[in-house]
Amino acid sequence: MKTVLVFKTSISKKSHVKTIQPFLNNLISTNGYWNFDLEDCDNILRVETQTIKSDTVSTILNNHGFVCEELH
Question: What would be the CATH architecture of the domain defined by 3-70?
């Protein structure tokens, strides 16, 4: 069963998405999906996954200089 993780991020530009894209693609692989909503005031990242933990996603973005906080 897939889970949808939702994060508030500091990623506000398409160039930021392109920076983080290879890392998210490697993390999610073929059984998941991710996308950003840059028009939302919280710059939402949605991740559909069966296996990835929210802290893994947060750590990747944080390691690249972005704020990432899971929304509940």
Answer: 2-Layer Sandwich (3.30)
